[in-house]
Description:
Layout: H1 3-19, H2 25-37, H3 39-62, H4 64-73, H5 88-92, H6 94-104, H7 112-120, H8 137-147, H9 151-162, H10 169-181, H11 185-195, H12 204-218, H13 221-230, H14 234-244
Amino acid sequence: MTPRENEHMQFLDASERYLGNRMDLAEKAAFEEKLAEDPILSQQFDEHKKLILGIESAVLKENLDEYHATLENDSGVKTLSDKKPSPYLWLGIAASIVVVLGLFLFFDKNDDNDALFATHFVPDPGLPTTMGTSENYTFYEGMVDYKREDYKTAITKWESLYAEKPENDTLNYFLGVAELANKNAANAITYLEKVAPVNESMFQEEIFHYLGLANLKAGNMEQAKQNFQKSKKPESAIILSELNN
């Protein structure tokens, strides 16, 4: 293997570890800095990310027939994964992706609330979608769409599950965040408020953070402040400080 080929393989390996949240904070920051400084590497990373998502989607669809057969014999919605996204994501990638996300968020320069929302809103990175069984295929198909920022399609798929299991905290949480990313703060508030009282939810801190953002987007300032106060996320404290100034 030539030095150039070896360097390329190392970059692909680093990209996969980054996408799989397997980097520590220092390595993640260094990788993001490298992408920021090299447009060609950044483009290669974006292409590799699309490839990974395509593989995930193909894995899900490969056993889709088996999934539909399972549905015919099972009238209930199976329990969703309890695996929680890595907390490193907020610290490691929020700064690098907020600018990109800001491009598709509605931004009214004459509205301070919208400006604050656009600055701080970063969708939850989502759950891993590589599966080896036929369970929960509709949910994870929706997760692939969600990661591709096709929030409308993800919402449609998840709503079909929500109709059968409206109390599921995972569904409520991701439907709420997807609705907020899809610029529908009112629907986001409805879903997130439903699961906010569930103290044992693994998304408890994130729920109040996104509820604060949803109310901020909707112009409900007092509710926004109350929810940011309930969230222990550092980002919530920053937003609350800006609101109080």
